[in-house]
Design a protein that fits this description.
The protein is an alpha+beta fold. It has 12 helices and 18 strands. Bound molecules: zinc ion (2 copies). The site of one zinc ion has 4 residues, from loops.
Length: about 450
Amino acid sequence: MQAYRNRVCRDQNTMKNISIILIFLVAVPVVNSRTDPVNERIWKIVEEITAGHREIYIDLHQNPELSFMEFETAGKMAGNLESMGFEVTGSVGGNGVVGVFHNGPGKIIMLRTDTDALPVKETTGLPYASQVVSRDASGTEVPVMHACGHDMHMTMWLGTLKTLVAMKDQWQGTILAIAQPAEEVLAGARAMINDGLFKRFPVPDYALAYHVNSHVPAGTIVYSPGTSHAGTRAAEIKVFGSGGHGAMPHNTIDPVVLASRIILDLQTIVSRETDPVKPAVITVGSVKGGTKHNIIPDEVELLLTIRFFEDEIYEQIREAIIRISRGVALSAGLEEDRMPLITFTSQYTPPVDNDTDLVMKAVDSMGKILGQDKIIRRPPTTAAEDFGLFGRTGENIPLAFISIGSANHELYHDHVHHGAFLPPVHHSGYTPDFYPTFSNGVAAMSRAVLDLFGNR
Ligand SMILES: [Zn+2]
Ligand SMILES: [Zn+2]
């Protein structure tokens, strides 16, 4: 116990020395969080369960599964929930798992983890690095890695649930534990909702989720009240022309030139059409067309991602993309049946709109156990996350999405002071610093959920 605590304290001291943000921006005095009997108990349980959860983590890390293929992972989550006494239902929206733990009358609190991995070849050099190669949805063989840290999420989720079950004399209510598949393709939350998540299971009063944050040291909590993540929609534009010999362009309508004009004109949507204080992103990530240097093709395909923080801004962007694409085609003299074909795909998720009161309550509780100086507010990110969908159903469930620091302290120090590369999530070299990420993450989430039950 003492050695364990010393390690945590040393980490915290190191962090004070290295983090400019923590020193200068968050000047709240640290209370002695360990003299609080609830905190004492949480830390003791965390210490007892860490070794077992390290094994769970390594197993998950070595056996990553792609989106929609989380069969074994779902089985592992279900087995762990059952052993803790949850009522477990599998195959909710594909490989989704739902666990319900009734503990008397009280609030219903949902805690969500995601379970899928990415087609990335791991380069961490860790002894337990993933060697997995799998077939993706198109049948192509790809390496697979938990490069987004969902293995860490699952491990912290299980650890938090274990802690809450061990402390069930301290709260009353119901835990709704959700292991959501297919987050990376923004499909799992929708699939679980469409499969009756809030019809077949208790409707939560609050829904909480978290993501590892590769940019801040383990032991730090990062939050945004209000909207924390952008909404996103993928779009495809097929630009048609009239192909021919590259030496005789006057006999053609060149879709390469038209596509180029569309790409440039799209840049004026955010710079000249949408409100400058309402951020948005339009990125053309792929241009495909043609086969040879001297052939003008019949069509060119553009693939886009759109990011936005308000539904109205998305609608404005959507209208502008259609108008600009048509305008370019009309100016080239194309007929109505050769207008660009624009598809706004089903790869869509709305912004994550957090409930400000819920987020502030959760991070205040986290500060009580980690120290308020470990809690950092940050602006929203243009990254997307389908957790926001859980707050968009008719049930109007308040959401809180929290970031949990996962960077190794020494590496973070080298990054800040010497420019060392700190691999972000989705990078082949990303790895969370397991022990401080797990212990602080579980302690923070456990304390937040206990306080939200509010009936100790
Ligand atoms: Zn990801
Ligand atoms: Zn992720």
